Amino acid sequence: MKKRVEKYLKEKADKVDSVTDEEPPKTADDYQCSGNLEQDFTKLCKLMAVKDIPSVKIKQSTSTNRGVMEDNQFQTSLSQLTTWSSKPCLRIELENEDHSCVKEVKISGWKMDEVVLQVLSRILPSLSNLQCLHMWRVGLMDYTFTSMRNTVSLCSNLRKVVLEGNPLPKQSYHLLIAEDSMLTDLSLRNNHIGEEGACLIGSALSTVHSANKNLLSLNLAFNSIGDAGAIHISQGLRLNRSLLCLSLSYNQIGDNGAAHLAEVLGPFALTHGEIVERRKLLLKGEESTMIQPSLVSLADSHERPLSVRSSSSLDRLNKSTKNPTKKKDNAKKEEKPAAGQATKKEEPKVAKKDNKFPRVQAGKLAGKDNILLVSEQERVDVVETVIPLLDPGIVYTGGNVIHPGNTCLTSLNLSGNKLSEQSLRVFLSSLEGQGEGGLLRLSLNRNQFPSDCDTFLKIQEIMSFRDPLKKNLSGQVDDEHGEPKTTNEA
Predict the structure, then answer these.
(1) By the 8 A CB rule, do 477 and 413 touch?
(2) In sequence order, which residues have a C-beta less than 8 Å from that of residue 82 and are 6 or more positions away?
(3) Which residue of 101, 184, 386, 450 shows the fewest CB atoms closer than 10 Å?
(4) What is the largest CA-CA distance in the chain?
(5) Is residue 401 a contact partner of residue 275, using CB atoms and an 8 Å limit?
(6) What span, in angstroms and rounded, lies between the C-alpha atoms of 117 and 352?
(7) Is 161 helix (H, G, I), strand (E, B) or coil?
(8) Which residues of the chain are modeled with pLDDT < 70?
(9) Is 176 exposed, middle or buried (0-12, 13-18, 19+ CB in 10 A)?
């Protein structure tokens, strides 16, 4: 009888536990995000007592017409920003029919309070497919921006952030492109960024000791960077080898700032601090080579110096010294396997290095198929040129250490500034010094030089030679409201 009672009480307790497990969370801290933004956002807003909960509007992703059509779709979305309703809402784009596959989130034209930001800081990191976050005029302040930046860093697959129309008193936008940032595309238009903000962004792009290695595109159009800010940006471009596209259109930049930008693209002299750091890197490289001689390139492995013996050769030397009578008998057996073992060990190490440092960062654009076809010596060269201060093109001339310049930047937009023919001459000199690599697109429209001046015509000729199909001789420049307009380019 006792056993039956105990069994009944145990079953009743299990039922009570199952009921309590199914009860909805009473606080936001207890809530576990499911990955469904529409569902999670509404429930969390209710738990955090949000009075007017913004609606969530869903747009199905169009997987067709990728490539060129993708840019047109983005431009259309920009034109829709001004026509959106004033009612707060989240616009999301799905990767497919599954509501848990949110690809893009857009917040436009309404000020987000602290509570809504806290809700988003809980939800966004749970969206494993989130790739793009648009925020336009959402009223971020310095402390709310810091919170949003921390949220962005927690989103594992988020690579593109558009933060426009959000002036910050401290201009701390550089936090989005810190050295550990995984963002590849960042747009900061219409944020009233001045010299201070440009200085911070320039330092985030690169310094002597650190550099951003992931950012590919940076849009700083329609700010107030000016000449002083452009000089800071140019300093950041000296040792940055990841950025491919940079827009500084409509930033009140004159000849002084433009000349500094142009000088970085061609050969320039290293500063004292850069020379000191270069010497440290060279010494460090020599030490690592002495400690690990087996990591020498394959091209030189068959010409190993006599003073540095491999471990296998030292073993053979010791054995032959101890047993001289067996030297002749074992010589033929040991030679062949030793050569085979050396080849197997060294080849993967070189390939492994090549995987860590893509060719894009070495200043060469190539597809994956092309990487597989390069020779072993070329792979070693790629590894060596990843560090800009160790670029093999550096030469010593007239007491100066001359760097070949930044040839990784492929697109530069300086439309709508105050450039005259004076700064164009510096651009012409740098483009001629770049040779075959370097800029493929240079936008210089709406500046203060005549379109028929000789220098501009020569620049056009160089750019058309680099792009025989003239794909980049006409492009789109955004006006101050973000609307694209078709113009001519150099």
Answers:
(1) yes
(2) 481
(3) 450
(4) 107
(5) yes
(6) 42
(7) strand
(8) 1-26, 60-86, 287-386, 467-490
(9) buried
